Amino acid sequence: MTITAMPTTETDEVAPKRSRKRLIIVLVIVVAVLAAAAYLFVLKPKGSNAPRPGTVLALDEQTVNLAGGHYLKIQASLQLTTKAAADLDGSKAENDIIDLFSGQEVGDLDTGTTRERLQEQLKNELIKDYDNQVMDVYLTEFVTT
């Protein structure tokens, strides 16, 4: 006496449910992979418009009159973009340095926050004056007397 016919009907009912679940899971994974591929190859931006750094133009050392008969000896360098002309003239930058720093109080320039604020103002002015060919300014010498 063998009983083999009974369990086969229960497993026959369970097997189609498992295969449907697996099919749904596989379809979800395939759709996710296709969506990711579509984003990477079609929808993702091709590149940023942010300027890339080029050469650094060192400006001549300048002496600027400060308030109260004091002086500032300053030298700056300009970080140019890759689209900047090779023979960029630094005269506008030197004029902007004189305009910005002339008449400043020595005590104000001794604090880092004021110096950083003035450097940021100078950078913004240079970006405007040089039509986005300058991306940053470095103060390489800064001595007050």
Q: How does this structure look, described?
A:
The protein has 145 residues and is α+β, with helices and mostly antiparallel strands. It has two domains: 1-44; 53-144, Tetrahydropterin Synthase, Chain A (2-Layer Sandwich), CATH 3.30.479. The protein is built from four helices and four strands, in the order H-E-E-E-H-H-H-E. It has helices spanning 5-43, 91-101, 106-110, 112-129; strands at 53-58, 62-65, 71-81, 134-144. Strands 1, 2, 3 and 4 form a four-stranded antiparallel beta sheet that branches. A hairpin with a 5-residue loop joins strand 2 (62-65) and strand 3 (71-81). The longest helix is centred in the first third of the chain and has 39 residues, at 5-43. The model has no long low-confidence stretch (mean pLDDT 83).
Look at the helices and sheets and give the structural class: alpha+beta
Strand content: 15-25%
**Strands, count:** 4
Quick one: biggest sheet? 4 strands, antiparallel
Shape, principal axes of CA atoms: elongated
CATH top level class name of the largest domain:
Alpha Beta
- Indicate the CATH architecture of the largest domain: 2-Layer Sandwich
Secondary-structure element order, N to C? HEEEHHHE
Q: Give the overall pLDDT as a whole number.
A: 83
CATH-level-4 superfamily name of the largest domain: Band 7 domain
Query: What is the domain tally?
Result: 2
Number of helices: 4
pLDDT < 50 stretches: none
Our Rg estimate from Cα atoms comes to 34 Å
Q: What's the helical proportion of residues?
A: 40-55%
CA distance, first residue to last residue: 113 Å
Write down the CATH topology of the largest domain: Tetrahydropterin Synthase, Chain A
